Automatic annotation (TrEMBL):
GO molecular function ontology, one term from the record: calcium ion binding
Cofactors demanded by this protein: Ca(2+)
Subcellular location field: Secreted
UniProt-listed Gene3D superfamilies: 2.60.40.2030, Serralysin-like metalloprotease, C-terminal
Natural source organism: Microcystis aeruginosa NIES-3804
Signal sequence residues: none
Pfam families: Calx-beta (PF03160), HemolysinCabind (PF00353), Peptidase_M10_C (PF08548)
The entry's keywords: Calcium, Repeat, Secreted, Signal
Record-level GO cellular component terms: extracellular space; membrane
The name this protein goes by in its record: Calx-beta domain-containing protein
Domain Calx-beta: 1-98, 111-211, 224-323, 336-436
Length: 733
């Protein structure tokens, strides 16, 4: 009889399913441990973890043991790949059963699961060298490089561009815009072979740009450019020496230099220019505007030989300029200037310009003369420009800048500057004309600037009537001559003879500086001839004149007598520093005493009396008269016949500076005027203008309520001691 002993020992086997999974997929590697034999109790089985994948990096970390539950025949370990974008080889996870307690190892060989990489390789592109010569032996090599898995062959697309033309300027490897990586190879190349030619042309480019395709990504997104440099002949030009003397033995040598291919002879074109004349001022090698390089020669020359003469002339130039042609390009520098310097003896000329006076309205141009000291056989040029002194450019004259050309052997030349008539009676004005930058002459530094005086005054030594548009007339000399104005506002001045002066229409001024003898003059005016004035400015002795009589009167003792051709024709008198006696007429007169202690009498009409400085006696006469105080050096003027309510005391705020009242009649600030009963009360008044009713005196109380008068004083005395009120005053600027 047979009995059987059954084996109840536990054996462990191991398998994986599936055998491989993708790195970025959802399926995992599942390692299944199976036990046979006793399964009643739980059991822990050991194993090792190996492979090219890294535990916890390329997949979720797993332990090195697994536990069977009681009564379970299987247990599993799951490997979950970690997704990334790294292009890398496939990686393995290898589990191998290890010995332990309560089981035997049934599967003794390692069990391998594979994580396959599903990222695409990246393609980059570069070119080396970056440029090659057109006719050289070196090619442009465009290298495509792939990173990551290189196991299989791979075809990559590209586009072709640039200024060079395929199969004309170059050829390439391959017939389509693709390149193929061999299996296991990390690089592939496209070779560009430039096509040699003799055409002079710009450098050209070949541009490859990676394009998208299957099984890769584009790493180099920008175009990659290789350059085919033109190595055909370039020609440049230079001259040495830069200048030679006309009568010397040295010549100008123009050297043409070529770079690039020099194997063959080459003819180059040029143009000929400059101020020198071929076959008159110089000769040259060759008879046409070409020069030929010998075979293998890098230079060729043209020689310019100056022609000697005895003519004094400016330096002259010979300019050669490269022109286009066949078999070369024009390089830089492309032109060369040689100078033939004149070595003949020269004449030293010196220039000067004069000063002139022009009468505005009579002279339409100021004609200045430029004088050549030692005339030159060569043409002279000199620049000129106008500069204002007190004349206004383009109002009183036309501003000009120009160049004056003086012909050979000429002693003088002129510059004409237009004078503009503004029809204004104004003081003399001036501007200058300055010479500069003379050629073939020097400029006299003491006479380089001409001054032009524009005057409104016509001077005459003969009897003269002012032409239209000229305002003023001055008689000169000592002859008995006459002066007549025009319809404008004229200023007429006699000479030291006996003159008849007639202003005609307009507001005319008759000027007499009677500090020296002026003779016996007659003034012819009409009652409709405008508002006219006698002006004695400059006369430092007493003036005695009465505008209301027509008989001869001695105006300045020993120096001047005047006769008016008609009564009531002159309105105004202006005197100077003497103790003057001025008398008006029935017109509205303005009598100005100036300096000195003057006696002014208005007579009939509404007159204005201005005593000026000094202690003056003012008599208005009939009419509504103004007694004007506008001098910075007031005395005490006596007013003999002031009529309140009709006459006015006129104060200039420029003199009476403490006044704040507005311009016009009366005081807009009433407190600025006051009357007091006695002169002793003036200094204690707070008003600025104070009238003493006891004496008729008028005071300027400059400091107001402060003690004393400040810088003020008594400036007028009303001899009739009338009653004054604020409206008897008028304020002016």
């Amino acid at each position: 009889m047979t009995g059987t002993i059954t084996n109840d020992d536990t054996s462990i086997t191991l398998a994986v399913s599936p055998a491989s999974v993708t790195e970025d997929g959802t399926t995992n590697l599942v390692y299944t441990f199976t036990r046979s034999g006793v399964t009643t109790d739980a059991l822990t089985v050991n194993y090792t973890v190996e492979g090219t994948a890294t535990n916890g990096t390329d997949y979720t970390s797993i332990p090195t043991s697994v536990t069977f539950a009681a009564n379970a025949t299987t247990a599993t370990v799951t490997v979950d790949p970690t997704a990334d974008t790294t292009v890398e080889p496939d990686e393995t996870v290898i589990l191998t059963l290890a010995t332990g307690t309560g089981y035997t190892v049934g599967t003794t060989t390692p069990v391998t699961g594979t994580i396959t990489n599903d990222d695409l390789p990246s393609i980059t592109l570069a070119v080396s060298p970056s440029s090659v010569t057109e006719d050289g032996t070196t090619n442009l090599i465009y290298t495509f490089t792939r990173t990551g898995v290189t196991t299989n062959a791979l075809t990559v697309n590209y586009t072709l561009g640039g200024t060079a033309t395929l199969n004309t300027d170059y050829t390439r490897t391959g017939t389509t815009n693709t390149v193929t990586f061999a299996a296991g190879s990390a690089t592939a190349t496209v070779t560009v072979d430039p096509t040699a030619d003799t055409t002079v042309e710009p450098n050209e480019t070949v541009i490859l740009t990676l394009a998208t395709g299957t099984g890769y990504t584009v790493g180099t997104t920008t175009p990659v450019t290789g350059t085919i440099t033109n190595d055909d002949t370039s020609v440049t030009l230079a001259v040495s020496p830069a200048s030679v003397t006309e009568d010397g033995t040295t010549n100008l040598t123009y050297t043409f230099t070529r770079t690039g291919v020099t194997t063959n002879a080459l003819t180059v074109n040029y143009t000929l220019g400059g101020t020198a004349t071929l076959n008159t001022d110089y000769t040259r090698t060759g008879t046409t505007n070409t020069v030929t390089f010998a075979a293998n020669a890098t230079t060729a020359t043209v020689t310019v030989d100056p022609t000697a003469d005895t003519i004094v002339e400016p330096d002259e130039t010979v300019i050669l300029t490269l022109a286009t042609g066949t078999g070369y390009k024009v390089g830089t520098p492309n032109a060369a200037t040689g100078t033939i310097t004149d070595d003949d003896s020269t004449v030293t000329s010196q220039l000067s310009i004069n000063d002139i006076t022009v009468v505005e309205g009579q002279n339409s141009n100021a004609i200045l003369t430029v004088t050549v000291n030692n005339p030159n056989p060569q043409q002279i040029t000199v620049n000129y420009t106008t500069t204002p002194i007190d004349a206004t450019a383009n109002v009183d004259y036309t501003s000009q800048t120009g160049t004056l050309t003086i012909a050979p052997n000429t002693a003088t030349a002129t510059i004409s500057i237009p004078i503009l008539n503004d029809n204004l009676n104004e003081p003399d004005e001036a501007f200058t004309v300055t010479l500069s930058n003379a050629v073939n002459a020097t400029i006299n530094s003491d006479e380089a600037i001409g001054q032009v005086i524009i005057t409104d005054t016509l001077q005459s030594s003969i009897t003269r009537t002012l032409p239209n548009n000229v305002e003023n007339l001055r008689l000169i000399g000592s002859n008995n001559i006459n002066g007549t104005g025009n319809a404008g506002d004229n200023k007429i001045t006699g000479n030291s003879g006996n003159n008849i002066l007639a202003g005609a229409n307009g507001n005319d001024i008759y000027c007499f500086n009677a500090s020296t003898p002026l003779g016996s003059d007659t003034i012819q005016e009409t009652t409709t001839g405008g508002i006219d004035t006698l002006d004695f400015t400059g006369t430092n002795t007493a003036v005695r004149v009465n505008l209301g009589i027509t008989t001869v009167q001695t105006v300045v003792t020993n120096n001047l007598k005047l006769t008016f051709s008609a009564n009531n024709t002159i309105e105004n008198i202006i005197s100077d520093s003497g103790n003057d006696r001025l008398t008006g007429n029935s017109l509205n007169n303005t009598l100005t005493g100036g300096g000195g202690n003057d006696q002014l009498t208005g007579q009939d009409g509404n007159d204005s009396l201005i005593g000026g400085s000094g202690d003056d006696l003012l008599t208005g006469g009939n009419g509504s008269d103004n007694f004007i105080f506008n001098s910075s050096n007031l005395g005490i003027d006596a007013i003999s016949d002031f009529t309140p309510g009709s006459d006015k005391i006129v104060l200039s705020k420029a003199i009476f500076t403490a006044l704040q009242s507005s311009i016009g009649n009366g005081f807009s600030q009433p407190a600025e005027f006051a009357s007091v009963d006695d002169d002793d009360l003036v200094a204690t008044s707070s008003a600025f203008i104070v009238y003493s009713t006891s004496s008729g005196s008028i005071y300027y109380n400059q400091n107001g309520s402060a003690a004393g008068l400040g810088s003020g004083s008594e400036f007028a005395s009303l001899l009739t001691v009338p009653t004054l009120i604020a409206t008897d005053f008028t304020l002016i600027n």
